[in-house]
Amino acid sequence: ASRSKIEMLTLSKRATGAKLPGTEIIDMRGKKGVVLSAPLATGLKTVVGEGHQAILLLNRRGFSSSIICRDCGRTFECLNCSVTLTLHKRRRALVCHYCDFTIAAPKKCPDCFSEELVEPGMGTERLEEEVRTLLPEARVARMDRDTTRAKGATAKIIEAMESREADVLVGTQMVSKGHHFPGTTLVGIVAGDTSLTLPDFRASERTFQLVTQAAGRAGRGEVEGHVVIQTLNPDHYAFLTAAEHDYDAFYTSEIALREEVGYPPFMRLCSVRVEATDAARAERAATLLGSVANATREAKGGFVEVLGPVPAFLARVHGRYRWQLLLKAETAPALHASVRGLKSAFESSVEKGVTLTIDIDPITIL
Q1: Are the beta carbons of 339 and 327 closer than 8 angstroms?
Q2: CA 191/CA 60 separation, integer angstroms
Q3: Is the sign of the CA dihedral 143, 196, 80, 120 positive or negative?
Q4: CB 67, CB 74: distance < 8 Å
Q5: How far apart, in Å, are the Cα atoms of 173 and each of 3, 143, 274?
Q6: 158, 179 Cβ separation under 8 angstroms
Q7: How far are the Cα atoms of 174, 175, 298, 349 from residue 285, in angstroms, in the given order?
Q8: What is the DSSP letter of 211?
Q9: Could you count the other beta carbons within 10 Å of the beta carbon of residue 139?
Q10: Taking each helix axis from N to C terminus, what angle separates 247-261 and 203-215, rounded to the nearest 10 degrees?
Q11: Which residues 6+ apart lie within 8 Å of 205 measured at CB?
Q12: What domains are there in the chain, each with its CATH number?
């Protein structure tokens, strides 16, 4: 749009004419163990006491992010995926959010037999419990993949908010997606850094989008809304610009960084991933393709930068080991020439049992 290739349309005000919500950024550094900061807790009490509604966004399911043994450091990982299992307290189960592998939550460490199993993280289930403790009389609903599995469950939660049968809605990013709850005057983003810390070049963009979408749920009725963002990075431009509802300022900061480090729209990207049930086979295939890519960096149409091969961010999913290459080029012809070389090498030289995934102009590189 900045190059006049497409037209950018801007909505400068809300459809109802309601004022955009004011936003408060809360610095959570040094507040170890605090789930709801004083401003957010006070805001919840005030809003519910006045008969209004609130939404709390935490983009993490479960009760906590994990269980860890305080004595020996043992963690609990999925047998099929390279991720830590998430505690779901009501079910007393540890669950993989990628393949649904599930085990009963242990009472003792299986390695050292200690009963000192602690829950260092936080999920939507624990957040719901914190709200119920803070506001015992409040009607609290939770919207995440666990509570919306059953047919019609999502509609029931939405109906409860629309009919004012729920005072506080706790949930993952589901709660930020275009819902119109006129009674909602407070939105709390409990852990704004969740998406910001992902190793992806669009992490800041996604954070800005999520905060903006969530903030848009506040003050859609007659009463002005307020947004509270809890973060460990209070000076990050994604939060500062979202707080001011200033997309142009966010774009200026983000586009300068993209140009400096060489990411879209200044470079073309291609994510190349190989997968196999055998770890060594996946690594051999990735190493071969990496060698081919590096040998042909001077591709027709320009230079191609090769990053990797490295184990993927999620190195194992559903029992399949994953390795990744990232190709960066200034021109599409150079990128396509490199990809053709990789496809040819894969078809002629890579052993059976390995799958190849090529994603040109990927939305994410995770």
Answers
A1: yes
A2: 9
A3: negative
A4: no
A5: 32, 9, 30
A6: yes
A7: 38, 41, 22, 9
A8: H
A9: 15
A10: 170
A11: 238, 254
A12: 22-27+38-61+123-259 (3.40.50.300), 268-360 (3.30.70.600)
| Nearest alpha-carbon partner for 203 in 254, 256, 249 | 254
3-state secondary structure (DSSP) of residue 8 = coil
Q: Burial letters for 312-325: b for 16+ Cβ neighbours within 10 Å, e otherwise? A: beebbbeebbbbbb
Tell me the per-residue pLDDT of 43-95, one tens digit each, with 9 for 90 and over: 999 999 999 999 999 977 544 467 888 788 788 888 887 777 888 877 788 88
Q: Identify the residue whose tokens are 């079910």.
A: 91
List the strands of the sheet with 298-299, edge to edge. 298-299, 302-317, 320-329, 268-276, 355-360
Count CB neighbours of 201 within 10 A: 20
- Per the listing, tokens 């719901």 go with 128
What crossing angle do the helices spanning 38-49 and 124-134 adopt, rounded to 10°? 60
Give the pTM.
0.83
Q: For residue 278, what are the CA distances in angstroms to 253, 306, 330, 353?
A: 43, 24, 35, 8
Cβ contacts of residue 362 below 8 Å, gap of 6+? 269, 270, 271
For residues 203 and 195, the answer to whether their CB atoms sit within 8 Å is yes
Characterise 225 by phi-psi region: left (phi > 0), alpha (psi -120 to 50), beta (else): beta
Q: 115-128: string of b/e by CB count within 10 Å (b at 16+)?
A: eebebebbbbbbbb
* Coil, strand or helix at 302: strand
φ/ψ of residue 187, rounded to 5? -125, 125
Instruction: Give counts: helices (H), strands (E), the chain.
Output: 9, 16
Write down the H helix ranges in the chain: 38-49, 124-134, 153-162, 193-196, 203-215, 237-243, 247-261, 279-295, 332-349
The tokens describing 314, both together, are 């999620």
Q: What is the pLDDT of residues 135-177, one digit of tens each?
A: 999 999 999 988 998 999 999 999 999 999 999 999 998 898 8
SS3 75: strand
